[in-house]
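Why show two proteins at once? Because comparison is the fastest way to build intuition. When a single record is shown, students tend to memorize it. When two are placed side by side, the eye starts asking what differs. So, the first record is below.
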Amino acid sequence: MNTFFKKIFDIYSNVPVVEKNKDFYKIDKLVYYLADIENSVIRANNIWEIDIQAAFSTFCHFLFPKDDPFIKKLETFEDKFEKNKFIAINLKGTKLKELNYLSKMVICSCLMNADPNATILELKKDGIIYIGESIQFGKLFKEYSNMGITIRSNKFNKYIRYRKTSHFINDKEIIIKGIYKDRPAFLSELLEKIIFEKEINNFDEIDKIYSDKFYQIIRLNMLDELFSKYYICGPNNILNTHFKYEKIKNIYNCTNVLPKNYLKLFIYPFLVP
């Protein structure tokens, strides 16, 4: 076992973990979403997002000698995506697993050391979304920083996750990650009004737009511009009757749509206080 890996493992193993966080803390649990586990909508205020800056490339420098050809080649890439691509292509088996486990151990031990009672909303390798205290006053945050490991933190006013899609909300910004991040332009604008203006005066009109009658008028008359505005999700997809994105070839053949599903998926969860 690499000496650095052993050092991190020893730190990780000696951090006390309260009962409610023991499942999330298991070393082989690299992905964790509370809303998905509970199959429910999770809403929270004042949540933290923490992650390790350039996690994989940082840990590679601990696992390989400085003069190793792999490290020399890695250092020729400036773009983070290109670095991670090079690592994924060239590291297989045990070494790649070590990077995943190091990411998990560092980020989780740092949080549990700073706030053992934090409520974990999401974990994905080197990043955590949680409700609790800042990590910046924790002993391990300083210790990892001294090692050259940078752990970043960001705070959001509101968080909502459902159907494997997360929404992070600040004063004038909505960040959407997950399966249903793509949505029609009209509904993206409507969501901003609901969240930031707190008032919708024309919901009867919205109900009409997302009615079967209105949809058939647009479809049968091949009204491309309106169809795109109200129904196209991302790169030429519609939302079909099974709540799945489906590529379209032409408007006229888009019969596998329930317009109200658009409101159920993209809008209704945000009408609950």
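Second record. Ask yourself what differs from the first in the token line.
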Amino acid sequence: MVEALEKGRSAGRADRPPATAPWNFGTPENPQDLDEFLGHFQHFEGNEQWLRGIKQVGWENFFLVCTKEFSDLSYRARRMVIEYCLQILESCAAKVKGQCTQQKIQDILQSEFVEEYDNPIFQFKWALRDKVISTAVLTAFRNRYPT
């Protein structure tokens, strides 16, 4: 298990976009980066044929990575989905006029939600059904943006 975790960490770091740097997945007193956070959980360790060739999650390939069954989410898959969710939050934050707060971002998420598979906000909400992804995204969101 430890060996698989270390492989996942090294594989995840190679694909990390620079956008993850300002996110804190711990507490203000004990900050954690995404790799440290994911290290606290168990992940699927089997063959991931469906991830072959995927370096980053986007609206086009979201459901190839984040299927109906969350039991097959590996370290790498969760990492990519979390990064995609954070990109969606950043996209919403960029639309905020004035000071960016949690409520303003939530309002944008609500106003742009359409229950369609290719809608990034629909995908964001779908991803939050996984407890690990939800905890990571919501913790980072609360740590980054004021109430």
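One difference worth noting in the second protein: The helical segments are 2-14, 34-38, 62-65, 75-94, 102-111, 120-127, 131-144.
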